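Known limitations

Structure tokens in this collection are predictions and should be treated as such. Users comparing against experimental data should check residue numbering before alignment. To illustrate the layout, the record for Beta-propeller domain-containing protein is reproduced below. The input appears on top and the generated tokens appear beneath it.
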Amino acid sequence: MFIRKSLVAIASLSLFACGNDDGGGTSIVGPAESVPELNSMTMPLSSLTSAPSNEFERHLKNGIYLRNQSEFRVTFGDVPESVASADMSFSGTNVQEQGVDEGDRIKYDGEFLFIANNQAGDVSILEEDRGQPLTSIRIMQRQSQGEMLELNTVTVNEEASSINGMYLNENTLAVLSDIYQYNIAAASFDEMFFPVNSSFNLSLVDVTSKQAPQVNLSFTIEGSVVDSRRIDNMLYIVSSYRPWLEDVVYADTEQGKLDNYNKIMQTDIAELLPHYTDADGNNFNLVNAENCYLPETATERDGFDGVITLTAINLAQPTEINSICVNAEVQGLYASQQSLYLYGTEYQYLEGKSSETSVVHKFNFNANTIDYRASGTLDGRFNWSLSNLRFSERGDYLRVVTTTGDSVIGLTHRLNVLAEDGNKLSLVSQLPNDINPQLLGKVSNDGKVYEDIQAVRFFDDQAYVVTFLKSDPLYVIDLEDNLNPVIAGELEIPGYSAYLHPISENLLLGVGQNVQAGKIQTLEGDVDTASSDDFAPIVEGAKVSLFDVSDISAPKEIHSIVYQDAYTPVEFDYHALSYLTNSDGSTRFAIPIERWLTETRVDSEQQKYDVWYRENELAVVEVTSQQTIAELQEIGRIKASFDDETQNTSSGWQDRSIFHQDDIYYIHGAQIWHSQWSDLTQVLGPY
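Generated tokens:
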């Protein structure tokens, strides 16, 4: 049997530790006379346990030794939702769960706009070649006529290579910045996810005075940010950390292996856990061994060298910092207002056959702490793109969608419902089942499903699932009875939706791609995109669809708009979507669009040549009602235009926008274009 390392994109909440410089002394002493026989590192599929610190220490050190003795040594270099509130007059960050804020590159409070300017910079630029920090924050103020005025540009951390995300809590701006250490030759995905010698910065900036903001707190933390969330005053950060011992090098002799093992085992555990440094250079433990969890099935022969830290910090009282850690692999996180879930998948290959088993760990938010609750396993994986949207907590139940198989042998998609049972998350229902055997995805002539899942979204007692191969089946799953989920209805249309946005109990917006021959609607009129090749459908462009889901047994597409030869970053990052629901029930949406175009030029010798360039614009659409009489209307587009001397070097990947009453702001790079709902042909800026 050959077991491959799980491909994990570790999701770890990392906030800053219980400020304590006492990490505990070494409990494993030696020297040993021989290296014990150790099991290979795999993803444990058991519940977690708060084991004695010496057991945690052995597990971590075993993992460090196992990683060190891998034939592939890694070298690292220093290289620089749902429904909006109708009484809001401006839009905010688009999030998965209402009440759970997510970090983004812009934050707006109705008057002041903060923009993380990563300078569209090449983060591979060496520090000595930068000339100035790659990252800064523009502070803008909305004026009486809607125009934007820059008040200040500040650099929070000069070592940062990019700003990971920001949160605005009253007059405190929390800024998470990455300080990258790049993996030149990672042997596996988890080595990329746990970069060695990496660090990040958390700064809390007092922005009471926008002209003179003050950094009240600055921590540089060992590890790498995976994700973060804010609930009221509490900030939760997910980070990963892999310890590195410079004097322990790969050995191919028995004596060298023994020397490495003894060096690792006799290293103080405090040196192997992440630390943070304050602005005065004082160094503290981010987490202590006594506050860490292990898989309950771990033995003396098991180990893993990565640490996931879950930290909670009170933004109103930032000295209140609490951290726990998990010495195991995970792949992502999902957070509700009450709970945090970490998840991951173990991939195994046995006699030419593959299998995938996933684990989910549940933690509860309890005042200023995070408490472990339970774990469960499921057959299948969650895939990578927007995997958190496959999860939803509703009352006492966790609903989650998994996938097994591949496009060769066929795919099986399941809706799973889990409930807490002691320290276990137990499976209480599943779809398909014996009573409701219908498969998710169109069944081919051989009885198999080859359509993979493109989008999942939960809303109240429904789950919406989009599968795709050549067309887009949209499935509506009825979860009114979590113990008896049922596919209530389905719809097949051209193209697919990669992101689903519930507008109301009646309407659903889909954003994705149009992939099928036929007519598409643009501002320039209908365009014939007919193709005779049924086996190689051509991606025609970014597609926005409005669905009527009022009758869950018969969902239907009301209207769609396609932007020819373009894509939208909303397909991969739902923060790129902005929306504002008005008091009359209409909802305005802004969707960034990017396409590549060519321009023929003539050189000095009159030779023609083609130049590729980006075209970036903001598409503005309206859903006229929250009822089934609603229409999807394109209002217009705001183009990011530049003068002849300015090149468009910024990718649309991080484009953002804001609605404020009738004003619309399009943020491309660090610049802002401004227009009004009544006439999008008049564009001011860039500011």
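For this record: The radius of gyration is 26 Å. Helices lie at 53-68, 127-130, 189-193, 254-265. Please report discrepancies through the issue tracker.
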